[in-house]
Amino acid sequence: MANFSKSNVPQFSVEVYQNEFLPEGGREVNAIVTVTSTGGGTTGGIPLADAAPSSAPGAGQEPGAAVVLMVDCSGSMDYPPTKMRNARDATAAAIDTLREGTRFAVVAGTHVAKDVYPGDGRLAVADARTKDRAKEALRKLSAGGGTAIGTWLRLADRLLNSADVSIRHGILLTDGRNEHESPEDLRAALDSCAGRFTCDARGVGTDWEVKEVTGIAAALLGTADIVADPSGLAADFTRMMENAMGKEVADVALRLWTPVGVEIRFVKQVAPTVADLTAQRTEANARAGDYPTGSWGDESRDYHVCVLVPEAGIGREMLAARVSLILPDPSGAGTPQTLSQGLVRAVWTDDMVASTSINPQVAHYTGQAELAQVIQQGLDARKSGDFDDATAKLGRAVQLASASGNQDTAKLLSKVVDVVDAATGTVRLKAKVAEADEMTLETRSTKTVRVKK
User: Fold this and answer.
1) What is the mean pLDDT of residues 102-119?
2) Rounded to an integer, what distance in angstroms lies between the CA atom of residue 325 and that of residue 20?
3) Which of 110, 133, 207, 303 is in Cβ range 3.0-4.6 Å of 145 for a Cys bridge?
4) Cβ atoms within 10 A of the Cβ of 121, count?
5) d(C-alpha 157, C-alpha 172), whole Å
6) Distances from the Cα of 162 to the Cαs of 43, 94, 121, 126, 307, in angstroms?
7) pLDDT, tens only, 357-387
8) What's the CA gap between 301 and 295, in Å, rounded?
9) Does position 57 have pLDDT exceeding 60, yes or no?
10) Within 13 Å, how many C-alpha atoms sit on residue 232's CB side?
11) pTM of the entire structure?
């Protein structure tokens, strides 16, 4: 990993929003932690002038980013034939978006994985010549074979980690279910790749499994989405690559320090999407643990931290947790750099108004997390034929989306249910729902909106 000095790391800030007041005997403390990254370089801390292409890997200064594009080339990509053509065109568009000096490779995925450009286990350095050659290799891709996504990810991992760069990113496109390896094989591949690179995953058409694609993105701290119409792939791939090229620093961790006696209930990202990070904790020391946040550009994200503190009497106060942003030393030997930090407090009071007031940010994101959950539960109930439960859950989802101003999710829900009264969550299940509409709602159910100002 490249080393970062303060001069080329974006400036991070941490803001904590909470109601620190607890009633006598109260134990649960909730806080929304807003992390914002601004400024910094756009090449992972290495100026483009210093990232000149080299004919020999490792010669001279390495560029700041590496990207591997994994393209599904299984037999189903030929039905209809335009799907494979659109996938080639989309990948070409993404290659055109690569910044000069970025390391990159293209992997064709079937029941095996093959690095079709530049080949031989290497990464190319993006310039006009290598981009043209990559697009020439894309034109030769054809559909045939099965689907074993774990093998694609393992090859991408080997390629990405062959270069000493700061940002490592994958883009994965699939149109089908992972039928040529076991779920355990895919999970093992994800466990092996986690923390080594981030990955955005896209499902094209409607024959893929939503939970597989979203599970890949969640494990590798990337985004997941559906592209129901293959003709929309090029625009989506271009946006994904532009976003990847905007990343400036990788491996930032949210470190949570807690005093003796404090228990951690959960740590979740709640904006721009809901993602539970609790199980991804790695121990930093006896009292602190790190939660991965992936790569950052100019952006802002919100996290929900919930801890249980020991009971205390009226008038007592304590530090319930300290939240720090940590950039690890690349060598693993030095002291991690603290980018910013904030404090979560607990104060016991007999003022009932103060102790029962719910912080607006906490209330909002608790609702957004519930929204994602009831959508998933409602769709699962609908698939299993439990229409009463599906109606109740999706009705609650409509109510939550309306109350929070999540208009995008409200529009997706309206394609699955007829809304009678959004405020009360009164809905009727639609008799017929397009498969693409149902899959889009499921895939995008974790997308949230920020607190209304």
Assistant:
1) 97
2) 21
3) 110
4) 12
5) 12
6) 18, 21, 8, 16, 40
7) 999 999 999 999 999 999 999 999 999 999 9
8) 12
9) no
10) 10
11) 0.90
Q: What is the DSSP string of 260-273?
A: TT-EEEEEEEEESB
| Cα–Cα distance, 240 to 184 (Å, whole number) | 28
pLDDT digits (tens, 9 = 90+) for 252-273: 999 999 999 999 999 999 999 9
Question: What single string gives the DSSP state of each residue in 33-61?
Answer: EEEEEE---SSTTS-GGG----SSTTSSP
Inter-residue contact 281 to 290 (CB < 8 Å): yes
Residues in the chain: 453
Please write down the long-range contacts of 374-382, taking CB distance under 8 Å and 24 or more positions apart: 374/400, 375/409, 375/413, 375/441, 375/442, 375/445, 376/442, 376/445, 379/416, 379/438, 379/441, 379/442, 379/445, 382/416, 382/429
d(CA 403, CA 416): 19
Distance CA 215, CA 201 (A): 9
Residues 439, 451 contacting (CB under 8 angstroms): no
Q: Kind and range of the H or E element at 445?
A: none
Q: Are 62 and 52 in contact (CB under 8 A)?
A: no
First to last CA, the chain: 39
Handedness of CA 180, 182, 183, 189 (dihedral sign): negative
Per-residue pLDDT of 414-436, as tens digits, reads 999 999 999 999 999 999 999 99
- Taking the C-alpha atoms of residue 81 and residue 69, their distance in angstroms, rounded to an integer, is 21
Question: What is the torsional sign of CA 332, 335, 337, 342?
Answer: positive
**Tokens standing for 442?**
């499921």
| Lookup: tokens for 265 | 């209930």
